Amino acid sequence: MRWSATGTRRSATTPDGVPTTDRGASPVLICRHQGVRLAVLATLDSGSRAAARGWSDLAIRNAFILPTIAFLIVFNIFPLIYSLGFSFTEYRVSLQKPAEFIGLQNYADLLSDPAIWRSFTTTAQYVIVSVGGQMIVGFGLALLLNRPFKFKGLVTTLLMLPMMLSPAVVGLFWKLLYDPSWGPINYALGIGKFEWLSNRVNALFAVAITDIWMWSPFVMLLSLAGLSAIPKSLYEAAAIDRASWWYTFRRITLPLVSPLLLIALIFRTMEAFKAFDLPFIMSTASVETIAIKLYQMAFQGWDTGRASALAYIVLIVVLCITNIYVKYLNRAKER
Amino acid sequence: MRTVHKGILAGIGLMLASSTSVLAQELTIFWAEWDPANYLQELVNDYTAETGVTVTVQTTPWSDFQTKTFAELNAQGDAYDMVVGDSQWLGAASEGGHYVDLTKFITDNGVDKSFVPATLQYYSLYGDKYWSVPLEGDANGWAYRKDWFEDPTEMANFKAKYGYDLGVPKNYKELTDIAEFFTRPDENKYGVALYTQTSYDAMAMGVEQTIFTWGGDLGDYANKKVTGILNSPENIEALEAYRKLYTFTPPNWNQAFFVENNQAFTEGLVAMAMNYFAFFPALANEATNPHAKSTGYFANPPGPTGAQHAALGGQGISIISYSKNQEEAYKFLQWFIRDDVQQKWADLGGYTCSAAVLNSEGFLKATPYNQAFADSMKIVKDFWAVPVFADMLFQMNDRLHPYITTGEGTAKDALDALVGDWNKTLGNDS
Amino acid sequence: MAAVTSRGQRFGRPVAILAILAVTLIFLSPILWIGATAFKPRAVATSVPPTVFFDPEVTPFVKLLTKRVQLKQPVAPEVYEAAPWWEKLVYDGGERVLKVGDEPQLSQYPNRFLNSLIVSIVSTVLAVSMGTITAYGFSRFKIKGEQDLLFFILSTRMLPPVVVAIPMFLMYRQFDLTDSHIGLIILYTAFNLSFSVWLMKGFIDEIPKEYEEAALVDGYTRMQAFFKIVLPEAATGIAATAVFCFITAWNEYAFALIMTNRRAQTAPPFIPSQIGSGLPEWTVIAAGTVLFLLPVAIFTFLLRNHLLRGVTFGAIRK
Q1: pTM, full prediction
Q2: Residue A260 belongs to what domain range?
Q3: Omega into C49 within 30° of 0, i.e. cis?
Q4: Segment B179-205, tens digit of pLDDT
Q5: Which of B174, B294, B395, C235 fits a disulfide with B169 by CB distance 3.0 to 4.6 angstroms?
Q6: What pLDDT, on a 0 to 100 scale, did the predictor assign at position A48?
Q7: Nearest CA in chain A to C300
Q8: Do residue B12 and residue C179 have CB atoms under 8 angstroms apart?
Q9: Quick check: B30 and C181 CB within 8 A?
Q10: Is the domain covering C110-316 a CATH 1.10.3720.10 domain?
């Protein structure tokens, strides 16, 4: 490779961020190999030893990005292809029999199984209730905390504690909290023997409440970030115009916080759809999310073929939903 | 930054090295998390003292035991040398090639003579071969509050209402009456604590016990037939009886297993609690059960036809075919079946299957519940042991749990639906 | 410009502070309750009404760390007297500590705790470093199909762990990776990478390209510019990302439950299993939880300033 100094530069980078050569003002260093221009570094003092040692931009770009992509491909794509294959077979990893091809039979069975549809509905309900709750509580907390006061840092960190607990432990303790016979909640609320976790409806709300408790801090954190970035001048201007609180909220606060709220919404929805830990520990029978159903099929019933098919159905649903969300987010960003 | 990185890596390397097993001989037994596993750990420490081979009993909660075991077996992993597996696993484990065939070991060492034959049949036999050495016998039984039963006011009220004396129930009708009698929500008292958990086989055990007691069956195990047997009129009645009993349980009792049932008892919530005998030590211990002195035990009562059965519990210890220490495992089993070891096992609290120890006076008097246990072992009956038992278990949970805990649907519908499921799983045409 | 406050605002301030205190207290009450339970005597752990005043004891922690059995007969007085203080506590609870020879047998908790430490630290380091350099690549260079690649990276996080676990289980079986530290580290890194890349890209986008250009003019290579200019500027973002990745890995339950067994099991699947072998041991679980919360809480607390600043930047600039 030969380095040569030629030309001059006007600007070091194109809008894309790629350093570019420019027959402009200051000298530019070009690396040539067999006459082909391989990479360009922005201006360097000729004779600088750094220039001789440095990696080309192309090399850096590849070295930085490829490992991650490769890693993710191996550990996400390969397994998915693997299980796509299994989804078309009748295979139980527990028996020594080899997989036998049965085409779309698994999918047909699953899509006509009312238990599966029930799981999907349960999961959808769970997502709506818990994510909705988190957004309201989290945003509410942020509104409350968005003012200067002593120990604000401490309070904010303390409020993050629920997020820092393992969901397994949270589930276990909240199960105790909800117990009608020896749990404090019924006692504190004075509702006697109310059964939180016994029937489908109650259990869904009970687990959702626990989820809300655990993850509102996340929404709160993001909302706080957004709220504190709103320039005070806007509020002052509104105050001068004697705008009502509601008006200020609707016209200034909400629109400026919405990109962040949307991000919180996306992440929390993704996570809620995967809900496994909390419902599993708190009440397997009553709140059977799709993740729990998958787990039972794959690791308790060892029906690998069918579980793979179900996994694919879930994957497609999640991809669709997230696609919609991200498109929405991109549009919101452009606004 | 670089030196910190190196330091971290070195530290991690060191920790990893020290946490992997060293080359000295070691055996690992896998079991569920309960008192017998603790007794076993204590017992095997003697083996360590004798031979220098470290034996560790690794445990995991009952709700995960089946999953974790088969996860390891299906991965053909060698993390465990032996497992104390449930009787229902024999089919799946043997046909999957996971267990070592111990027939020769059993016959060569006379285990078929020294151990109670019934235990071998239930815990070891599958397809004419022996796959384990019976380790822990167990059956489902009942604990009850003697003080409540012997209280004169209660006895008088009971006699007035039901027309016979309050005492240990002689059949299921009495059991149900007593449960109804003691269900007083305003006094925070309830009749019974039942098995209803669906993460493994708890609910199934409770239900099957009732079905057997009504003279019914879960199917023809040998011929894999289910139709007409599982949904027979007796079974329907039995399921309805279990549902009726459920209405006398404390609130929110729809995912209860041994821990909850014991807790209901120690907190004075119920008059009677169903539980496997292996869990009763906690009730006999005064430090953990304030009512220990007034706790009595009885075997599962007979049903309307006079049939009396208890759900089989208990496990046998098997050698895993992927273990790298099979020779040592054999030596361990040789040691385990020694009479003195079996005696010590019983003394520590394990439910030995050795005939000599089980029938001795000393054993029967050792704890308040051993007599009831011995009675129960004579009437035990089991679930399916076929390879697809896990699927059948979950289908049973799916179909019967809603009916039992919420009363939705009818017993007949639930059982009919289950017949359909099981036929499909067993590969039957109808 | 003077702040314009209405009378209403000035009045509202102490009310707001009161509200904040009340809300914080109510919100954190379950955690306080768990913390208290870790020190309660077993008898009052689940009493209703909840016991607020009690004599704290350390027994739950002793029980957490040792293997025990139920006492079948009362312990002999001489044995009791001769026992160390912690063993006496166990005897008082109706149990005794299992011993190999004279050494008390430790429960699996210390080992599981250690596994959690190893797996979480290593996977966080990997996820953050790989994420940072990848984010830099996406931020500074033109990549073909950038939006699609970024969506692909995001999508890896959308899958329920079970979906990935099924084929991973089979794959790991081939390579003997089930129930190993490395296996879990790989999974956690893959899991956290997507979050790490997205978050770090947000931060790095924030850093003006002019800084690097100036450095390049001054004779630095790009790599040097990266290490000497970009990284320090992104330190806040790295801290925030590290905290979130660590929390995620530390508390992860599903993969640990499915993929680990004897050797590499971490604490989250382990702690609920302490529910007990006869009676529920809530105090022991609470003790295990409190100990397990400490590292995360300390780590987060140390980095709290970075965290708050970091979330502000990374989140706004998406």
Answers
A1: 0.78
A2: 110-334
A3: yes
A4: 999 999 888 899 999 999 887 888 999
A5: B174
A6: 41
A7: A157
A8: no
A9: no
A10: yes
